[in-house]
Amino acid sequence: MDLTTKFDGLVLKNPLMPAAGPLVGDAEKMLWLNHVAGCGAIVAKTISVEMAHIPHPCIIGDNNAIYNCELWTEYSKDKWINEFLPEYVAKKGDCPLIISVGYTKEDMEILIPELDKFADAFEVSCHYVGTDREKLAEVVKTIRKHTKKPFYMKISPHIPDPAGFARVIKENGANGVVAINSLGPSMVIDVENRTMAANNDKGFVWMSGPVIKPLALATVYTIKQAEPSLTVIGVGGVANAKDVIEFLLAGASAVGMLSAPMLRGKELYKKVLDDLPKELEKYGFKSVEDVMKTGLKKVTTYEAELPRVKEEKCTHCGMCARNCPYFAIDMNEKKIPEFNSDKCFRCGLCASKCPNKAIEFKH
Ligand SMILES: Cc1cc2nc3c(=O)[nH]c(=O)nc-3n(C[C@H](O)[C@H](O)[C@H](O)COP(=O)(O)O)c2cc1C
Questions:
Q1: Residue of the nearest CA to atom 10 in ligand 1?
Q2: Final residue in a domain of this structure, among 270, 294, 318
Q3: Count of structural domains, the chain
């Protein structure tokens, strides 16, 4: 199975890369993700002119989400330029290096010329400047002035109007978008201690992991539909090979993952890559490029039929009846769900939630 993806002159042997964060915080970690995990490209942790002063604790995890108040790299740009990047680049092989940088036009004037010789491409965090379109345009123009390499502006979910964001960055010379950064501000509370569980100076944390995947997919889709010539790197909630395929279908050319391996073990990178060929085959795709060419169709209609129970699959658990928001399902004497056609709203919740796929819903 051909997992190659190509964009803006970069060739990745597979579409999976780490997203910027602690897992790519120095040369040793990046080398592990490249040579042991087998990622198709490596993104380095965001470097800025000043090193970050990070509060502790700064990372909280639950089943499906990570909450963090980590900032950009805790190391100086000089440590990256003199130690981590030379060491990494010497051993990186043919795996492209995308260096993440932040944040202002003034930061870019300094960072891009100094980092350019190490980078195959740049990713630019707009976390603190992206809501101001004029500042955003200035950042993009400044980067283009200092490099011929491809660069991707990373959109944070609190930045409004992703399509407008994409238009501005395209008009000013960026190659594409990384979508999305962590979501927030959000809050985690420790009731026992009457405190926040972790917090930045304002009391908040940023949320990531599987819980944000639908928002990330929608942002990727919105940007690709609005500006098809831009490359989109999809990030947010990826946890398995099927998620990778979903992002490619939504319009991404490559996919970043960070929180899921922090919740479920760092071997997840290798597992996703091991599973990807089988998963592509299972869904009838011939290659990663084949998925990208496919595109997505909409399914919702205004003439859906009444759901139908496949009795042989029903385990009589009654979940459908308990969950139905329209009070339209009753369990009959054989403990099989029966649908009241007057009350049933054809919403589809019962079919999507049935643990045994015993409800068929034609639309
Ligand atoms: C602990 C932590 C640190 C992060 N640091 C950065 C960073 O330095 N720069 C950046 O652009 N994004 C950073 N992110 C955001 C991730 O790169 C990614 O966009 C986000 O977590 C969504 O992907 P995920 O759900 O796979 O984690 C960080 C996320 C986490 C959880």
A1: 20
A2: 294
A3: 2
Q: Tell whether ligand 1 has an atom less than 6 A from the beta carbon of residue 181.
A: yes
Any idea what the CATH number is for the domain that residue 351 is in?
3.30.70.20
The boundaries of the domain holding residue 90 are 5-294
Q: Are residues 72 and 184 in the same domain?
A: yes
Which of 60, 62, 182, 183 to mutate to test ligand 1, by most ligand atoms within 8 A of the CB atom? 182
Give the number of other CB atoms < 10 A from CB of residue 290. Answer: 14
Looking at residue 302, the DSSP 8-state letter turns out to be S
pTM higher than 0.85, yes or no?
yes
289 with 314, same domain: the answer is: no
pLDDT digits (tens, 9 = 90+) for 4-47: 999 999 999 999 999 999 999 999 999 999 999 999 999 999 99
Query: Does the Cβ of 237 fall within 6 Å of ligand 1?
Result: yes
Any domain includes 301: no
CB-ligand 1 contact for 154 (6 Å cutoff): yes
Q: Is 22 in the pocket of ligand 1 (CB under 6 A)?
A: yes
CA atoms of 38 and 34, how far apart (whole Å): 5
